[in-house]
Amino acid sequence: MSHSLGVRQAQKQKTRQALLDAALGLLEEQSLSSLGLREVTRVVGIAPTAFYRHFRDMGELGVALVEEALGSLHVMVRAILAEQDGAEERIDRTVAVVEQHVRRYPLHIRFVARERHGGVRAVRQAIAGELDRFAEEVAAALKSQPVSDGWCDDDVRMLAELYVDRLVTTAAALLDAEADGVEGAAEQVVRVARRQLRLISIGRRHWREDH
What we know:
Blueprint: H1 2-26, H2 37-44, H3 58-82, H4 87-104, H5 106-115, H6 121-143, H7 153-180, H8 185-210
């Protein structure tokens, strides 16, 4: 009996992932608010009613895509910021991680960039929630660094939000550069991102004395 349950559970998970992948592919050219579940189930090859075994509605599917898009990025960036290397080394590795993430998951990044201010409220809230959690994690990592000694929590959080905003903007810019296909465009985005983050880092070192 347990073996049969395990097989069914594995098949259910496989179908759920197939729905996510199908939706993501269809969303390359349209917004979530315009995508119907029948389109998605047609690609997967299941009946429309079977969709509800996996998601309540398209909004819940969109929330799952948000978690796929941003979840692993949190872990990687937080690990880099927790390291005790110099600021420039951390910046270079952070930008490199974002660049790799965009190249590995372009459809996910495009989805987040489009739906961040899109028409599906649950997805907008999920993206905002993920970015808020991301900022909390970055703030915790920044707080542990010696340069943050004496900083109040509000200022550390403000700094974390600056970093997160730059990383999100960089990801979207890299996606556009890759889509445009202009030689050297992606490299220019990376150079600008590094300079912007270094500028923030310089300001950070002088914040307490000027605040």
